[in-house]
Design brief:
The protein has helices at 15-27, 40-50, 71-81, 98-103, 120-134, and strands at residues 6-11, 32-37, 59-63, 89-93, 110-115. The protein has 136 residues and is of the alpha/beta class. The protein has a five-stranded parallel β-sheet, sandwiched between helices. One of its GO terms (biological process) is phosphorelay signal transduction system.
């Protein structure tokens, strides 16, 4: 991690949601560096070619409903391609379907379910959780 900034990957097909996230980080000065991808396959490629260890990537936020690859397909591919990955994944969705919340139990990397629209408190919780898990 660079300084105290948390490096996160956000996989979201809505450019408006990505813009709002970037603005929230800037306005509220959340210590996060955001790497955005509108396609799951591009995010997987970036993780494979760029991320060397878990300290380089603090968290992955992934939307459930995307056209090319769903959030579930993304997480399944992430875990298959990186069986030892320890980066926490958070599902980000407007879904209120209890089945979606139950389904997160199927994936060891998924650490939480965040409702859209994201709030600054959600981002702060992710950075606080990462800081606590990084300490002795």
């Amino acid at each position: 991690m660079k300084g105290s900034e948390l490096n996160i990957c956000v996989v979201e097909d809505s450019t408006l949601t990505l813009l709002l996230l970037q603005k929230m980080v800037e306005i509220f000065k959340v210590p996060i560096r955001v790497n955005t991808f509108t396609q799951g396959s591009r995010a997987l490629e970036w993780i494979k070619n760029t991320v060397k260890d878990k300290e380089e990537l603090g968290a992955i936020l992934v939307d459930l409903n995307m056209p090319e690859m769903s959030g579930w397909e993304f997480v399944a591919a992430l875990e298959e391609e990186n069986p030892n990955i320890e980066v926490p994944v958070y599902i980000v969705s407007a879904s209120c379907d209890p089945i979606d919340k139950e389904r997160i139990e199927e994936y060891p990397t998924i650490k939480g379910f965040l409702h859209k629209p994201l709030k600054v408190e959600d981002l702060e919780r992710i950075t606080d959780t990462k800081r606590q898990s990084s300490s002795c």
